[in-house]
Amino acid sequence: MPIPIFSIFPLISAFFLIALGLFIFLRNKNNLINFNFFVLCFFLFVWQFFYGLAYLQTNEGKAASLLMIGYTGVVFLPSSFYTFVITFLNKNKLRYLSFVAYFISFTFVGFLWFSKLFINGTYRYFWGYYPSAAVIHPLFLFFLCAAISGSIVLLFLDTYRNRNQYLQFQKLKYVTWSLSIGPLGSVDFIANYGIEFYPFGWVFVNIYTSIVAYAIIRYRLLDISLAFTRTSIFIAVYSLVLGIPFALAFGWRDQLKSLMGETWWLAPLISSTVLATVGPSIYLFIQRKAENKLLQEQRRYQTTLRRASLGMGRVKDLRRLLKLTVNIVTRTVRIEHCEIYLSHKLSERYILKASQGWSLTDDKRMSFIPADASLVQYLKRHREPLVYDEVKQRGQDFKDLVLEEIGKVMEELDAALLVPSFIEEDLIAILVLGKKRSGKLYSQDDLVVFSILANQAALAIENAQFYEDMKKTHDQLMKAEKMATIGTMADGLSHQINNRLHAMGFIAGDALDTIKLQSKDNLPPEAKKVYAEMEVSLGKIQDNVKRGGEIVEGLLKYSRKADEGFTAIELGKLLDAALEMAQFKIKLNQIDIARNFNGSIAKIRGNFTQLQEVFFNMIDNSYDAMMQRKEEMREPGYRGKIEISVQEEGHNLEIVMKDNGMGVQEKDQKRLFTPFFTTKLSSKKGTGLGLYVIRKIIEENHGGKVEFTSEYRKGSQTKLLLPVAR
Fold first, then answer.
1. What are the tens digits of pLDDT across the range 72-100?
2. Which of 108, 428, 560, 645 has its CA 20 to 30 A from that of 11?
């Protein structure tokens, strides 16, 4: 009488395999990988299920019929396995070999059912009946080896080619490494040749299919070494716990039979059940020790990051906080690069504020992410980290256009991981992480740690911004105290003041014109001297009246708030508007304007009025510098020239305005952006607000950058870096 325990194992295995196959298939019915995995599991089910039923039979004829059905599943394993592999690898060119493989399987099925050349009977073993191999059975084994070997070669080649593609590489490693376990199931063929060796291939088959299924369904994978360590520990522990009692029982089978009769098999079963109760404790203990060894480095940087996140709140300077965060993450986790994009509500963008591994001005870096981008909206909706390989794979598998678009943005960012940073419902920052230098994946534990870090960083950023705003407010109040009277009067009485200044200017001008038209030929020298002094004095009055008006206007500009009306702006039209404001000066003094760009240049996203003011100030500064050089140096043939060149630098527009004016001495260059500081001649002294207003508009209102360089007596250059419109 066959022992029931030996049929239970393959039956349990059969139901596990078909359940696993259905689970994978139902996750995505339209995916060929999932479908072909189900087909493979189905044939494995047929094999295990009908073999398990055959082991229970006492009638040889019934057992033989069941074994024939089971062996039909075995015959289709090479073809279904090969088909799954080439589908998994997306080898469309090799699909014809799949048809060839299935043709060979159907041929063997014909031999199986309609001749005695493949299986010619059964053996009677202690676990039950088992098929007996015939003359062409070795050919089937050769076919099986060829299918497995060919699949292994394809998997290894593809694994090597995709070694730089994170997720695909890991998935291939899972499937490839599992092949070291799956073929061990072929030990079952030993019993086909009359050797009484219990067919425990179901153990390896189940491990193999479980690993492959894990590789299919998991996009956010653990480190491969960790997964296999856990699997190996589990197999080792439970092989010992469950296997030792059965091994001892079979060694002392005769003694047990004499003691217990036909129920001798209950002894190893009961012993294994008792030992199984201590199995989990042994497994968890060994697993903990192994993981502590394997994850030593990972545990180290996770602890460091947790400590760093707790100390962030003590940093009050926003720029220092952001720089500190990217430095800690990059150095501690040992990643290629790290960036922080900070919310800038005025421009409706997330602007690059801190970077490690890349320069903030690197042309390859995205300088900003639009607030309405799919990536930002997805982060706001799901509030969880995004893994690039996961996003890319899901986008491909499910034909999700949003995920595909997000994948492209992450690819442009060279981001292996994106971590959102929230304050309540507000996404205030996005942490961008590159690949680990070790080549390992970000684990689930990593994502948890980075999420904690991002949340702590959000609080720290909010605190730093609040502190910065308070400091700015304090500074503004201090400035307001110094210029309260002037500012209030300039704002409230500007019209009246300007009217009177204009009147004074006209009076002085008329008096000056009268003096100039007056004939002085017949006047005595003393009178001529008086007229000359009056001309000089009236000219100074005109200059001071003009400057007084400029100061009033500058104070008003200084106090104005940024307008939120941002639109896509053509640079050509913007320059035309600025030049129109200064055309009288330019034409009067015959200044050359050179535009070194064409109309196909990208548009700027900004406030037209504010940017017009910026370019007018730049042109006006260049004009004054050229007039100063003309007056001081008196070079024969000198002619003022302004060159404007534009080029796209990644996601920015670089605008360079260069003049051949007087330039600025090195000692004065550091103070140029200070309010009320000017280097202009006393007779034509400016307000000292031009460059300050330029920086305020470009950097604070538009999230751009201003750079000023100068060489004394040769000229100056102002470079603007502005984000392009999308």
1. 999 999 999 889 888 877 777 788 888 99
2. 108
